[in-house]
Amino acid sequence: MSISIESILVRQRYAIVGKYGSVKLCYWTKESIKSNAERFCYKQKFYGIDSSKCLQCTPCTMFCNNSCKFCWRIRSNDIHDYVSDDISTKKMDDPKDLVTGMIEAQKKLITSLQSTNKEMVKNAMIPKHVAISLSGEPMLYDDIGELVHEFHKKGFTTFIVTNGTLPEKIENITHLPTQLYVTLAASNQKIYNDLCVPKTKDNWEKLMQTLNLLSSLDTRTCIRLTSIKDFNMHDSKTYAKLIENANPNFLEIKAYSFLGMSRSKLERNNVPQMSDIRNFSDEIGFRVLNESESSKVVLCGVNWNKKDALISC
Fold it and tell me: For residue 83, is it within any domain?
């Protein structure tokens, strides 16, 4: 990672771990601490994740094989002096060292909230859940299964959010996360190419392969449908068929947020209202289990049993 990119990330309150890893306090982690747990992430409401104890990280900051218009994270192609986002030529960080460093980085970041709520900060100093979703595509990291394993050995639950373009990595992962999220942002290849701007021509086909894999994985799975007004909130029957064939445990229909780098690609009026998300969910047609208005997301059950409702971290 170049010095100029690292300085930008540090200004944005990323903590750099190793060569390519990073940690950043999630908005909802901070809100949970400040509000004495009265405000929290929708994942706490849906799955029992304690927002104050959630560690948001990535083993491969800046590396991604898509350049999605709706992504609010800083990306390599947004910075002119970053030579390449090809991770295959890089020597990646050791997973055990990353986990140790990420936990320490989280503690230092949380210390900055000491003046807001000392008891909540003390509680948050022992994180119990990790969201491997901060920046970049986590499946590009060679040792992603071992990274998950290292977190599990320390008693963490784990969520991975992937764009689904590396089915061979998912199929052969050594240790599966507690829950695997796959982002679905298009009902067909034309919309996908326009919205996700793939850097490899077969990324849509790879995503379809990943969807076909989901029901065979021995872990909880969730398709996240990132919903963008005037772009991809139509063709509900095709979405329903794709989701039905994939047969995940859950479907999250979530509104795009007008934040960060995405503001140069999309407009504020591309943000759906909660009523739009509810209507779109009704059109797709799976059973609604829960919703969060503050995050504009509806949770649906697909291959779902009542016992799967909470992880209870």
Answer: yes
Cα separation, 148 vs 96, in Å, equals 10
Angle, to 10 degrees, between the axis of helix 203-213 and the axis of helix 189-196? 110
Question: Considering the domain boundaries, does residue 53 fall inside one?
Answer: yes
Helix/strand/coil (H/E/C) assignment for every residue in 125-188: CCCCEEEECCCCCHHHCCCHHHHHHHHHHCCCEEEEEECCCCHHHHHCCCCCCCEEEEEECCCC
Q: Is 197 left (phi over 0), alpha (psi -120 to 50) or beta?
A: left
**Residue pair 55/104 in contact by the 8 Å Cβ criterion:** no
- What share of the chain has pLDDT > 70, as a percent? 91
Provide the strand spans (E) within the chain: 15-17, 21-23, 54-58, 129-132, 157-162, 179-184, 220-227, 250-255, 287-292, 297-301
The CA-CA-CA angle for residues 306, 310, 313, to 5°, reads 160
The string of pLDDT tens digits covering residues 33-83 is 999 999 999 999 999 999 999 999 999 988 899 999 999 876 555 543 333
Q: What's the pTM?
A: 0.92
* CA dihedral for 187, 305, 134, 246, sign (positive or negative): negative
How many domains, in total, are found in the chain? 1
Q: Which residues contact 180 (CB under 8 A, 6 or more apart)?
A: 159, 160, 162, 170, 214, 217, 219, 220, 221, 222
Residue 15 to residue 22: CA distance in whole angstroms: 5
CATH number at residue 126: 3.20.20.70
